[in-house]
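lol ok so funny story. i was supposed to be doing the assay writeup but got distracted and ended up predicting the structure for this chain instead. priorities right. anyway since i did it might as well share w the group, maybe its usefull for someone
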Amino acid sequence: MSEINLLPEELKPSGYISKLDNAIKKISIFLLALLILICFLGGSAYGFLFYQNDLLNNENQKLKSEILALESVEQRLVFLKDRISKVSKVNALTDISESKVKLEQILEQISDKANLNKLELKSNEIHLEITFDNTLDSENFVKYLKESGDYIKIELENYNVTNLGYRVVYYLVMK
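and the output, tada:
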């Protein structure tokens, strides 16, 4: 098909303008294609990010439900820890009762002339403050402690001579 041009030849655009017109048309088509491509990529990115957001929200909900489930486990662990501490207190009481037996044996070894001034009893420790009339009673007492074999540590913390006798402070750690 031939082109029909009703304009007189002198109004026909020159070659330069015609070339410029063709270049503008090509650039316009290229920019339109680029715009369509950018819109397509933007829409794809928006869809991808929306999908990722959905996945993250689902995982967030899943983690929240796991946390709620773990809260009940944590409460049970706290109760269990409390029970264990109570059991350990009871065990400490049985340790003290064993210490009491050893303490009774110690008190039997103190002579009638000696005075027990102070006594502290812990689970496996005994602090004693005794005033002896003479050094022989003090020596016999330490000899008994060593020979009994019931103590890991026998420590003489203080030894004073007073007008009442010999005041001795012992620190004992039981096996």
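Strands lie at 115-121, 125-132, 151-162, 165-174. Helices lie at 15-109, 135-148.
back to the writeup now i swear
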